[in-house]
Amino acid sequence: MDIGVQCYLFNGRKKKLFWEIQTTGKEIKIRQGHFNEIGGIKKVNVSTRGEAVSKTKKLVREKLMQGFKPTKHTIKDIFDNIDAVDGNPICSMFAAEDADLEVIKDFCNYLNVCIAIGLRPKEFSEIYVKFVENKDEEFIGSVALANNDELWTDYLTDIDELDDFYKRAVRGHADRFIVFIDHQDEKSYSYIVAARGDAGAKEIESCALGEPHCKDEDGKCRHQWPSYLISEAPIYSITLFPDSAEIIFRDGGETKVEI
Fold first, then answer.
1. What is the tens place of the pLDDT at every residue in 51-103?
2. Which of 58, 147, 194, 244 could in theory staple to 169 by disulfide, Cβ–Cβ 3.0 to 4.6 A?
3. Which residue from 79, 65, 75, 60 is spatially nearest to 19, judged by alpha carbons?
4. Prediction pTM value
């Protein structure tokens, strides 16, 4: 599997620097420089394919800890290399109330890159401290930026739980994160679910909301999910309404189901 990661460092809300790495076989190619410039290229050859992958992930982790934010192109590459396999949810985190879906997806994408390149809980904690305690304004501008107008911190409600959530995800051997949005009484509630493999829609719902909230007074499931969403479905996000749900898959495909 080839590895390619692109990321930017922001100064406030403007892109300042770019850094990208491409690993093919035993060759690692790095390009970096100021935004809107060609930048410099460096090539490194190592002894084995395994060494190339390990070194690449280490360099990406270092950039994330410096405040670089992966691009959407990187997210797509990572999703393309995630296998659709039967799995189960590990834990969930309430993220926000009435948040823009694109902001929550952007936040989830960042977590998916972190887990894919093996960012350790200790390393994530260092990012978390800079992010939450505002110790580095340039860093905050880079990691927190969702688009040109909004920051994660404009929406995220339980940001203080983020560090513990990531630790629980890693300890549970999670390898992907999923967005879950619950619409109730003209409000929306956003969750991030950590999973190992592809959990079914029913399991994702139960992990996000808690099993008691997914059943009626008779103890029966409130929603009947179609069989193709039970397991191994490459679900990226679920937006739940009272009688239906909108599903987005990792390849960008979408479907709406009556439940």
1. 999 999 999 999 998 888 888 888 888 888 888 888 999 999 999 999 888 88
2. 194
3. 60
4. 0.90
**Tokens (6 digits) for 197:** 């493999």
Would you state the structure tokens that stand for residue 84, as one six-digit string?
């659709």
The topology (CATH level 3) of 3-80 is: q64v53_bacfr protein fold (2.20.140)
Of 113, 54, 107, nearest in space to 79 by CA: 113
Among the listed residues 231, 227, 224, the one whose alpha carbon sits nearest the alpha carbon of residue 245: 224
Q: 22, 4 in Cβ contact below 8 A? A: yes
Tell me the C-alpha distance between 91 and 22, whole Å. 32
Residue 248's beta-bridge partner residues? 237, 254
What is d(CA 90, CA 92) in angstroms, rounded to the nearest whole number? 7
Sheet of strand 27-34, all strands in order from the earlier edge strand to the far edge: 40-45, 27-34, 14-24, 3-11, 69-70
Q: Are 197 and 233 in contact (CB under 8 A)?
A: no
Please report where in the chains the tokens 């688009």 appear, as a residue: 147
Which residue from 217, 230, 229, 231 is spatially nearest to 256, judged by alpha carbons?
A: 229
Stretch(es) of the chain classified as CATH 2.20.140.10: 3-80
Contact assessment for residue 54 and residue 44, using Cβ atoms and an 8 Å cutoff: no
